[in-house]
Amino acid sequence: MKNYSVAPNQDASAWIVKLEDIAPADEFEAKDDAIAKAEEMAKENSPSKLSILDKEHNVIREERF
């Protein structure tokens, strides 16, 4: 199972989509755009898990595809 995450960068100026805590796959200005891209990537690579993180990097939502 692949693990995707969406989290803000250090100064919260952008949202980053990552796969398996490796280098960022994509960076977005809007959180919703980052989530949409991560959901698309997770669905294409099912089974997978998507974690949405807040500014303190706590998981606020998880989805499985």
Shape: globular
| Helical/strand content category | alpha+beta
Amount of helix: 10-25%
Global Rg: 11 Å
Query: How many β-strand stretches?
Result: 5
Low-confidence stretches: none
Strand order of the largest sheet: 3-2-1-4-5
Number of helices: 1
What is the percentage of strand-forming residues? 35-45%
Order of helices and strands: EEEHEE
Give the CA-CA distance, first to last residue. Answer: 10 Å
Instruction: Report the sheet with the most strands, covering strand number, pairing sense and barrel closure.
Output: 5 strands, mixed
Mean pLDDT: 94
Would you give an account of this structure?
The chain has 65 residues and is of the alpha+beta class. 22% of the residues lie in helices and 45% in strands. It is built from one helix and five strands. A five-stranded mixed sheet has the order 3-2-1-4-5, covered by helices on one side. Strand 4 and strand 5 (59-64) form a beta hairpin. The longest helix has 14 residues, at 31-44. The radius of gyration is 11 Å and the shape is globular. It starts with a strand and ends with a strand. The mean pLDDT is 94. It comes from Virgibacillus subterraneus. Pfam families: DUF2188. InterPro entries: DUF2188.
What's the arrangement of secondary structure elements?
Elements (H helix, E strand, L loop, with lengths): L1 E7 L6 E5 L4 E5 L2 H14 L3 E6 L5 E6 L1
